[in-house]
Design goal:
- The protein has 223 residues and is α/β, with parallel strands linked by helices.
- The protein is 59% helix and 8% strand.
- Strands 1-2-3-4 form a 4-stranded parallel beta sheet, covered by helices on one side.
- Helix 1 runs antiparallel to helix 2 (37-78).
- It is elongated, with a radius of gyration of 29 Å.
- The two termini are 47 Å apart.
C-alpha cells in the first residue's frame, strides 16, 4: 500500500481517538464534581466501558479499511501493462537491464544492489525476481556478505560469475583487507559453480589459490 495513504488513515484514526479522549476527560471532570461516591463509581465504569467499546470498534474499522485498501492496491498493480506480460518476457527485460553490470566489478550500485532495489518495487516483482535463479548468479566483492549469501542460495545450482576487480591497492597478501579475504574464501568454496571469474589479486598466493580451485564449469578467467 502507498505509505502516504496508510499515514492518512492512521492520522484519521488518531484524530478520532483524541476526540474520544477529550470527551472522556470532560465526562470525568464532571463526575469528580459530583458528591455521591456511588454515583461517581458507576459513572466512571460506564465511561470506561464506553471508551473501550469505541476504541475496539475503531481498531476493527481501521484494520478492515487497511485490508481493503491493500486489496485495491494489489488489484491496481495487476492492471499495469508491464505486469500483464508473461513472466518469461518480464524476466528477459530485467536481465537485459542488468546485463551491463554483470561484467563490471567497479559499478555502484552493483548488480546485486540493483537487483535488491528492484525487489522493493512491489510484491509481484519481488516474487518473480527471487524465484528466478539466473538473476542471482553474479556476485562481487563490493556486495555485503549477507546479500552474497542470499544470492548464492537463490541462484540454486546455476553457474556463478565472480567479480573482484575493485582495486584494493598494491599490498602484500598478509595485509589484504579482511573483506577481500572473506570474499575470496566464499568464492573458492563455490568454485565448482564458477562460469566466469574476474579477480584483482594482491599477491601470488591468492592467485595460486584461485588457480588450484576445482572449477569444471569455468569458461572465462581473468586475474
Amino acid at each position: 500500500m502507498n505509505p502516504a495513504t496508510t499515514a492518512t488513515v492512521e492520522r484519521a484514526i488518531n484524530l478520532l481517538l483524541q476526540s474520544i479522549h477529550d470527551e472522556n476527560r470532560n465526562a470525568l471532570e464532571a463526575v469528580h464534581r459530583r458528591e455521591d461516591p456511588a454515583i461517581n463509581t458507576w459513572m466512571l465504569a460506564r465511561v470506561d466501558n464506553y471508551a473501550g467499546a469505541i476504541k475496539s470498534t475503531l481498531e476493527a474499522v481501521q484494520s478492515d479499511l487497511l485490508r481493503r485498501m491493500s486489496a485495491l492496491h494489489a488489484e491496481h498493480n495487476t492492471m499495469i501493462p508491464l505486469h500483464q506480460l508473461p513472466i518469461e518476457i518480464f524476466v528477459q527485460i530485467i536481465t537485459g537491464a542488468l546485463e551491463p553490470f554483470q561484467t563490471n566489478g567497479r559499478s555502484r550500485p552493483t548488480h546485486l544492489g540493483r537487483l535488491v532495489t528492484l525487489c522493493r518495487v512491489c510484491k509481484r516483482w519481488r516474487e518473480v525476481i527471487r524465484s528466478t535463479p539466473p538473476l542471482w548468479t553474479t556476485i562481487g566483492i563490493l556486495d555485503p556478505a549477507s546479500i552474497i549469501t542470499t544470492a548464492i542460495s537463490l541462484s540454486a545450482n546455476h553457474p556463478l560469475n565472480i567479480l573482484s576487480t575493485s582495486s584494493l591497492g598494491s599490498v602484500q597478501y598478509g595485509d589484504v583487507p579482511e573483506k577481500w579475504r572473506e570474499f575470496s574464501d566464499t568464492a573458492i568454496t563455490h568454485s565448482r559453480r564458477w562460469r566466469s571469474v574476474q579477480l584483482l589479486v594482491a599477491a601470488s598466493e591468492s592467485a595460486l589459490a584461485v588457480m588450484n580451485a576445482p572449477a569444471p564449469r569455468l569458461q572465462s578467467l581473468e586475474i
